[in-house]
Amino acid sequence: MAEHNQRQGMALLRELLDDAVAGRGRIAVVTGAIATGKSHLLYGLTEQAFDHGALPLVATGSRAERDLPLGVLSQLVHNTPMMEQHRAVTLGLLQEGARAELAGDTLDHLDVQIVDALCTILLELSERCPLLIAVDDAHHADRASQLCLTYLARRIKYAKIMLVFAAPDHAAHQRSLLHSDLLRQPHCRPVRLAHLTAEAVLRRVAERAGPEAAGRFGAACHELSGGNRLLVDALVEDFQAGGGPGERYAEAVLTCLHGTDPDLLLTARGLAVLGEPDGVARLLGHGPAAVAQALQALNRAGLLAGGRFRHEGARAAVLAALDATDRTGLHRRAAELTHDEGAPVAVVAEHLLLAGCADDPWALSVLEDAAGQALRDGGVEAAIEYLKLAWQGCGDERRRARIATKLVRAAWRINPSTPAGHLAELTAALHKGHLGGGDAVVLAKALLWHGHVADAKDVLHHLRELGGLDREGLAELAVARAWLRGACPSFLAHLPEAGQEESNSAAHSLGVSRRIESANALVRALTEAPRPETTAVAERVLRGSRLDEMSMDTVESALLTLTYSGRPDRAAPWCDAFVEEAASRQAPSRQARLSAIRAEIALRTGDLAAAARDARRALEIIPPGSWGVAVGGPLGALLLAGAAMSRHEECLPYVTQPVPEAMLETRFGLLYLHGKARYTLTAGQAEQALRDLRLCGELMGLWGLDAPEFIPWRVDAAEALVRLGDHEQARLLLEEQLRRSDRRSRRVHGMAMRVLAATGESRHRVMLLRRSAELLQTGGDRYELARTLFDLIEAYHTIGEYRRAGMLTRRARSLAVECSADGLSQALSPDGEHDGDASGVQPILSDAERRVAALAADGYSNRDISAKLYITVSTVEQHLTRVYRKLNVTRRSDLPARLVGEQS
């Protein structure tokens, strides 16, 4: 059957109408897919009927009136102009025919006399005036009207009558009496309307939005509409408003569906639920043949392509229009079907999620399996939703506790504070005996993270009483033992004693072995001087690790092992790769933890700006209040970087940030104490810094985590003692640090020698500082190297070696700028000028000395300065003594006025 566009179809119908007016009766059956414009064509023809000398009689079939006897024929007769007596006769015939049906007569055998009489009236009328009889939606016409119209069609071959019937081209109407009888008539012409071609769509878009718009999105309009005029027009509006399919497109899709047969609408709904044509018949409980025909009709309508919606927006619109009860019912049925057919667990779980129920045991298993798969693939949020539904639907307390543990682990990846609400439930489940040993270990670590020390100890004590742990419990216990040794050593005493059964169980699993191996490597890095074999283990672990469900602690331990073993250069590329992986897996908690590690790495290479940036990013991704005891990591790194960059005001909010008291029972507390001490030391509060450093050192010694590359607290404590004038105690600390660090910790060794130079005589300083510079050059810490070079410039200046001092100036300033060490870079004047000194070198003042000197130059007394900077009067006097010596002045009034401007 040839297809016609609107213009061709109208031309053909007008030609047929002219034939009918001339006395050659014609029949036309207009068909087409949804929204091909059948009704518009029909009514366009009726409007032109008078121009062709014909009287139009119009009727419309309706699903609601299919059982109304002779309803369509009644519409035609009521619209026919006739004499009153003829009208009375006609109405009587219609009433008699209706009574015949109500009396139980078979419609196919309606009284022929009634049919003939009714048709005769129309034939006689056509002798006076040609008739155009048009019936829209003829497939909904009642059977009695169909019988009459087919009877009439067989008798108009030489009458001035044109019969036009419009109906959709899907199969439902093609079996009707009207359709089959009409097409057999020799004077009948089928007119099948087609959707717009690609070229026609471009023309239509150009007409509505201009040629430029047709070039931009005309092709997309055709692809998303299949040429359906209604969809094309809607898409043009959406593309103009928002650049893609939107609200208008969704409305047009629903208009197309709600204007067609309910079977097509129901099929579209089933397809929207499943997303695939396979299984729609089983979902709806319909015959496969009927559903296949409906899908074909929807394809022809332009709504589908290959049995699937052309755009996800169309599918979403159909789903959204469903009644909530119908939607959940369909998804529940879809979950059962897909599960029975062995579909992937993610598909079944998604239907369960949309149905909002998981009452059956198989549903819980599906949701748990789907959550595990989603976590492996990086779909953390989906995994959380699956586990939430499983948790809500589980009636077994033991299984519910296990699901809650998985939920805690998954939610931890997004925000560690999210699963805190489940901790009380899990604790209660533990006491009831519903929580396994492995899950109890996870609970203890979560409680520790949130600072619930007493509860964590209680869980660990309960774990000791459980006895007879299964394989998973023994493995988790072995991992926890290694992890606690490096993170929370004081809690080791609360774990059950290690037995042979635990060791054997752990050895059976490669994943568990890697976790233990990584944690033990970190312990060695925290307790011993750097060893090549330790870094080799860390790199081997990293090569075999991905950020799957269980490996974050493994990756974290391996990265820190490299960092605390003096190889931050090797840790950096690994950490960057894992940060990127965490982002791709939508795991913000892991991004934050890795960013905090990246900040520590950057500090040890002297990249202060990167360290501050990474630490801030960690605290932005996870707010400080959600970090628990681990907040000491990013806070400590940010304070260290801020102090080195002389950004004291910017860091002040972080200094005053409340931290959990339990943090000081963890490794993270040591990092915080170190950062806070460096901050207060550079702010001129040496006594406060010394107290924090001594506490840090005391805890490190108590826990045995006193490796030189972890936290060189003795170096900073010695610097605080130097500022307080206690050179002897400073030397003792530095000598011990040098013994501990030996040559394998070049960075720390170089740092110690720099401070040691400040405790001795001027004539020995140059030698010590030059050695310090050599060590730091190979140690890779550019900031510490810059500090040594600045001290060396001052040492040269003190002994009158101005030329050598001048030679170092440019390199020192370049390093300071490269590290973003503002306090250092400002210590040398940009033009190399120096007040009254031919060396061209600006004597170096520390940050604390510069603040004291600026206030003194501005007229403040020593006591005023003491109160303003929160330091003792004795400290003020010591600072001023060093300032006078460095600037070669003897009294307060000789201090350069520029110091005041720099301070402000």
UniProtKB/TrEMBL annotation:
Q: Keywords for this entry?
A: ATP-binding, Nucleotide-binding
The parts of the chain that form a coiled coil are: none
Taxonomy, superkingdom:
Bacteria
Instruction: Tell me where in this chain the HTH luxR-type domain is found.
Output: 838-903
What Pfam families does the annotation carry? AAA_16 (PF13191), GerE (PF00196)
UniProt protein name: LuxR family transcriptional regulator
State the species of origin: Actinomadura luzonensis
